[in-house]
TrEMBL record:
SUPFAM superfamilies per UniProt: Ribonuclease H-like
Entries under Pfam families matching the protein: DUF7963 (PF25908)
Composition bias, Basic and acidic residues: 760-769
Protein name stated in the entry: Uncharacterized protein LOC111469173 isoform X4
Annotated spans, Disordered: 757-777
Organism of origin: Cucurbita maxima (Pumpkin)
Name of the coding gene: LOC111469173
Domain of life of the source: Eukaryota
InterPro entries in the record: DUF7963, RNaseH-like_sf
Length: 777
């Protein structure tokens, strides 16, 4: 069993080979994604002829290289620059088969006109080749339509676009330009289709799908439409091209009423039954409530989502509730209690805790007092986000930087001469014009720092350009008698100004980075104390880097920590086997040394609160035994074994559920304490789970005045959320689309990002089995 105190003996060559394999696989998948989008008409033309190929090593079948293969001549090229490969191989005519794709096996039957591009009409102006098609050699240009000889039998009306005139016996020497121009091709196609039908009136339309295949296809399509809830409008079913697609596939059209009727009811009942069964089978659960203060696009309205976190790590969707705007703490308390009763029925003790976002914690405290077995928490994610507001409000540095940056941004944005001078240098230095993000006059920057952060980013991105602007003669002449211009100029040329802007910008970026990780990782409450310790360490480094006094910064962090702190953080940290530490005698003991005296008392009081009065003494004795004996070293090491996540490159616990399982199996002597541990260590510290898109919120809000409409909208939300949580997908479709577009923005940049995502060797070594170096909190 691997020890958690020292890194395992890993061969560096094997580690390097494993990283190279993952990088090649990821690079290949990125190329395939770009090619798939391009084939659908959303990318470069040359992907129709270039195909990504993963070359494997014959000896061990591991990926060796990623190449591009020409589908026309089977040549293989480097995949480092697809655009250059296309230019050299396809555009310059290097490919021997590009100009003769359709020369072989020319059919004598009429060619469908829809497969032929518009003919080239002769005039004195040269037309440039389309950007999304390869350039053909002059001998294979599309020719004008040939005149049909009336004495000959019916023949194809148009020759193959890549067939030379000399090789097509059906074309005469005379050429004809249709009187109606290019628009006549549509009528010509209809004429050809009519001739085909007359020649073979009983021709078979092609292979037909069986009834089972049609039913299966319609079922899958219906599932996709319902689970896409809000992203795909049901009105798309009436789109002519969508109907044409169904017809081409041999599928019948789907009425919208059919999806919103029996099919939706069936999917909802199926999802509801599955959710209830999983909740019923669990020994206990936590209710997560998210969205109490999220404003919808249509105004002061919000949709509150209720989810159920189960001990096995899964999350089940419960319901979406339309609140109609901001609500009081009392109303929130009533809604949460009603939800607990709906789920639990008569067995209220199955709900061991509630996690909720944003609104006043008074409702949670009241419920915790009323039901002593509950642990009710405020969302940890909101606590970290609030730190930005705290620093903006209480640290003078933020106010000074905001005021100075507003002066610079407003001056540059409102002075046309200065703006023109800025854009002149911007084009020279950074390519492109610039428009600063400036907070609106109505924006309260003390509460909402996002517009200020965008402005800081803009200023830092063109700091060098601004310094060139104030030295320009046109700037000096335009602002000679302007006192504000002189002040702005002195700010831009002041090195301390830029240091302070960078300091504030880096702090916000650091907090946002941590919140993104929290949102992605969804940590349990045992991780709360280590998270805050990690924050303190990063802020201390930030203070040292930018020469900022630590004392006022520590006070702000401590104030927010006290506001968010719950005694269950300390108890879960002590009872979670993941944080056991090895002492000099080889025992794995709970980290009581990391707690302050007040936090140790919190552990005792919480354990006593979560057990009955008769069991309190027994629980206290077992806690002392746990403190002195801990867990068997082999099982402790097994719980703490880590492995690298192939997606993020970070070290993660190999089996998160083992933390709970050891209390149920290996620690049978702690009968009373085990009840407390099993109720604590699986609780989440964040309320985020299923991300409800704005389109879904609009769907619910738009039907709030109709009982039937609201019921159907809520059913669609439930089915979509249930399906997404079943897949373990906690991401946002908008974020995925943004990532995909950024990948397609530059193919070469995308390939570089694939390799830049791989962590450095120092980062990997840092992640390996490190002890928790925490000071008393």
């Amino acid at each position: 069993m691997a020890s958690t105190n020292s890194p395992p003996n890993i061969d560096s060559s094997e580690l390097t080979e494993d990283l190279a394999t993952k990088a090649l696989n990821k690079r290949y998948e990125c190329l395939v994604t770009v090619r798939t989008k391009a084939i659908k008409g959303k990318g470069a033309w040359y992907w129709a002829h270039l195909e990504p190929v993963l070359i494997r090593n014959p000896s061990n079948s591991l990926p060796k290289a990623v190449k591009l293969k020409c589908s026309l001549c089977d040549s293989v090229f480097s995949a480092s620059n697809p655009s250059r490969t296309a230019s050299e191989h396809l555009k310059r005519g290097t490919c021997p088969n590009l100009s003769s794709i359709s020369l072989s096996n020319v059919s004598a039957s009429p060619l469908p006109i829809s497969s032929i591009p518009s003919p080239t009409f002769h005039n004195h102006k040269k037309r440039s080749s389309p950007m999304n098609a390869p350039i053909l050699t002059s001998s294979y240009q599309v020719h004008s339509l040939a005149m049909i000889e009336p004495t000959r039998s019916y023949a194809p009306l148009i020759s193959s676009p890549r067939t030379p005139v000399a090789q097509n016996p059906r074309l005469s020497q005379h050429q004809l330009v249709l009187s109606g121009g290019k628009d006549d091709l549509g009528a010509l196609e209809m004429l050809e289709n009519s001739v085909k039908k007359l020649k073979s009136p009983h021709a078979s339309p092609g292979p037909r799908l069986s009834k089972e295949q049609i039913d299966s296809a319609i079922e899958l399509l219906t599932d996709w439409l319902i689970e896409s809830c809000g992203s795909v409008s049901l009105s798309c079913l009436e789109h002519p091209k969508f109907k044409a697609l169904l017809s081409q596939l041999g599928l019948p059209s789907i009425p919208r009423t059919d999806i919103l009727g029996a099919r939706l009811d069936s999917k909802f009942e199926e999802a509801k039954a599955d959710s209830e069964a999983r909740i019923r089978d669990a020994a206990s659960f936590q209710i997560a409530s998210d969205g109490w203060k999220n404003k919808n696009c249509c105004g002061e309205e919000s949709v509150v989502k209720f989810m159920v976190n189960l001990p096995n790590g899964s999350t089940v969707f419960q319901k979406a509730l339309f609140t109609g705007g901001l609500v009081s703490s009392k109303y929130a308390e009533e809604v949460i209690l009603d939800t607990v009763n709906e789920i639990c029925g008569s067995d209220l003790q199955k709900c061991v805790g509630i996690i909720a976002d944003k609104y006043k914690a008074k409702a949670l405290r009241n419920l915790e007092i009323k039901y002593h077995w509950m642990v009710n928490l405020s969302c940890q994610l909101q606590g970290f986000i609030s730190l930005i507001k705290d620093f903006n409000k209480e640290l003078p540095l933020f106010r000074v930087v905001t005021e100075n940056c507003l002066k610079v941004a407003n001056f540059v944005s409102t002075k046309s001469q200065v703006r023109n001078c800025l854009n002149k240098y911007k084009v020279q230095e950074l390519e492109g014009h610039l428009l600063f993000h400036v907070p609106s006059p109505n924006c309260d920057t003390s509460k909402n720092f996002s517009p200020v952060y965008a402005m800081l980013d803009d200023l830092l991105s063109c700091a060098h350009v601004l310094q060139l602007v104030v030295l320009d003669e046109s700037y000096k002449l335009a602002c000679m008698e302007d006192s504000l211009a002189t002040e702005v100029s002195s700010l831009i040329q002041n090195e301390r100004f830029w240091d302070e802007v960078e300091a504030v910008n880096s702090f916000v970026k650091m907090i946002r980075g941590m919140t993104r990780e929290i949102e992605a990782e969804r940590p349990l409450i045992g991780q709360c104390l280590p998270l805050w310790e990690e924050l303190r360490s990063k802020v201390k480094e930030w203070c040292a880097k930018y020469s900022i006094a630590e004392e006022p910064v520590e006070k702000i962090i401590e104030k927010r920590f006290r506001k968010n702190y719950h005694p269950a953080w300390s108890a879960a940290f002590i009872l979670d086997p993941l944080y056991l530490r090895r002492d000099i005698n080889g025992k794995y003991l709970p980290p009581f040394k990391c707690l302050s005296q007040e936090q140790e008392k919190d552990v005792d009081s919480l354990v006593n609160r979560l057990v009955s009065r008769e069991e309190a003494h027994v629980a206290f004795m077992e806690l002392m035994k746990w403190r002195s004996e801990g867990l068997d070293p082999l099982y402790a090491q097994a719980v703490q074994v880590k492995q690298r996540d192939p997606l993020t490159g970070k070290m993660k616990i190999a089996n998160p559920q083992s933390r709970r399982l050891v209390w149920e199996t290996c620690l049978s002597e702690f009968k009373t304490l085990a009840k407390v541990a099993l109720r604590l260590i699986f609780l989440h510290s964040t309320s985020c789970g299923y991300k409800c898109k704005c389109s879904i919120m609009n769907l619910v809000c738009s039907h709030r005045h109709s009982r039937v409409g609201l019921e159907k909208a809520q059913k669609m939300v439930f089915v979509a959320a249930h399906a997404k949580l079943e897949r373990g997908d906690f991401s946002n479709e908008g974020d995925k689309d943004a990532e995909l577009f950024s990948m397609a923005d530059g193919e070469n940049d995308m390939l570089n990002e694939v390799f830049s995502d791989a962590p450095s060797m120092k980062e990997k070594e840092k992640d390996n089995y490190t002890d928790l170096n925490m000071k008393p909190l």
